[in-house]
C-alpha cells in the first residue's frame, strides 16, 4: 500500500505551483525522514515543467506551518553516523529547494520552528500571517541540539550574526512584526490573504537580498568569532559599570 504523501502539488492557472503541507493523521506538521523522497519527487516535477513560474509552500494545518522535526526520528538514530546521514539528507533537500531557478516562497501561518524555519530559510522569500499563533524560531538548543539542515548558515546571512546567534543559542522565537523588522520575512499580512500575497510575491521574481549592516558582514567573515567575543565582553563590562553606578 502506497504511503499518503504529506506534500500535495497543484499548479494554478497563473502557473504558480502551490505545495500544500499536510502530514496525514497528524495535528501538527513535523518533518520525518520519509518526507525526503516525497519532496525530491516534487522538485523533479518542478524542474521538468518549464511552464511553472514560481512555487509557494503553505500548510493545510489550522495553526502551524511546520513545528519542527519529528523527535522520534532523531531518537531512533543509534550512532553518530546515522545522525550525520540524517542531517545531510536534510541539508541536501534544502539545497535542492534553494537551487530551483524559479522563485520559491514560504507562506507561513502558525508555528514555524526548527526544521520548519530551515525549510522557510531555503526558500527565496517568506511571508507570514499577522496571527498571534505565528512564531518563527530555532528552538533546538532547548533539546541540546543545533539546527542541522542549513539554518546555522542561512539565518546569519539573512538577518545578521547577532540576531541569528540570539535566536539559535537561546531558542528565542519571533512574532510576525519582530520577524519583519529583523528581515526574516518579507511581508506580514492577514491570514485570509496569505496565499494570494505569496503568489503575488512569486510572480514578481526572486525577492532582492536585504542589505546587512557592515558590522554584521564583518561578524559573518573569518574574524567574526574574535569580533563577536570582543563585543560580548564590552557589553558585559558596560552592564557592570551601569550596575555599579546605581
Question: Mind explaining what this structure looks like?
Answer:
This protein has a 6-stranded mixed beta sheet, with helices on both faces. It has a 4-stranded mixed beta sheet with strand order 4-6-8-9. The longest helix is centred in the last third of the chain and has 22 residues, at 224-245. The mean pLDDT is 87. Helices cover 45% and strands 17% of the residues. It is an alpha/beta fold. Strand 1 (7-11) and strand 2 (16-21) form a beta hairpin. The relative contact order is 0.12. It is built from 10 helices and 10 strands. The chain is globular. The protein folds into 2 domains: 7-204, Alpha-Beta Complex (2-enoyl-CoA Hydratase, Chain A, domain 1), CATH 3.90.226; 214-244. InterPro entries: ClpP/crotonase-like_dom_sf (IPR029045), Enoyl-CoA_hydra/iso (IPR001753), FA_oxidation_alpha_subunit (IPR050136). In the N-terminal section; belongs to the enoyl-CoA hydratase/isomerase family. This is enoyl-CoA hydratase.
